[in-house]
Every structure is written in C-alpha cells, then in structure tokens.
Amino acid sequence: MFETPSGSPNTASALWTVYQMIFTSDRGARSNVPHIAIVVTSGLSTSISATEAAADAARQAGVELYAVAYAAGGRPNMQEIAAIAGDQTNRMFTLGDATGTPSAVAGAVLDSLCQA
What we know:
Blueprint: H1 11-22, E1 35-41, H2 48-60, E2 63-70, H3 78-85, E3 92-95, H4 102-115
Parallel strand pairs: 1-2, 2-3
Helix pairs in contact: 1-2, 2-3
C-alpha cells in the first residue's frame, strides 16, 4: 500500500542534490549540453530562504531551473516558486487548476525549453 509522506518537503536538499550529485561528469553530465531540472513542488518547503540559496547555487553551477507549482487542495507558495525559477516567469508553471492540467503544463514547459 502506498503511503503519502507527511510534513514539509525539503526542497533545498533536493536542489543541492541535483547540482552536486546529478549534474556531474562522473554521472555523465557533459559541459556542452544544457543541465535542466524541472522542480515540481507545492512551494511549501521547510525553508524558503534555504530553497532560494540552493536554487541560486544550482543556477551558478549552470543548472537551468523550471518550477512547477502543485498544491493539491491548497495554494502553492508562489514566492518560493519564483525563487526556484529565478523570478523568470517563463520558467514558472502551475498545475492543479482548470488551466494547469498535466498535459497543458507539460506543453508549456516544452515550449519554454524549446525557446531557450
């Protein structure tokens, strides 16, 4: 049986992992290929300031971040979503309302990636 995790997500830790452990040459990352991470989050993490610092560090390391806000039954914290996306509105998406169906968000993310 699947159990839903409880508590606040540690988005900062996930972002640190992305750029320190995933986008590394020993894991196959190449310097001539864009390093892109799509973060799907409620924006309700344990610390917005820690998330912002980790997102800034990831961007400085060359990782392009896209943020997809999702808060089932609630409202995502758009301040944190903006911090992840570096305040670039073309890298911020919302999933869960009438206009933010999974296919619509996926299409919008792909459009944004292809324009970059």
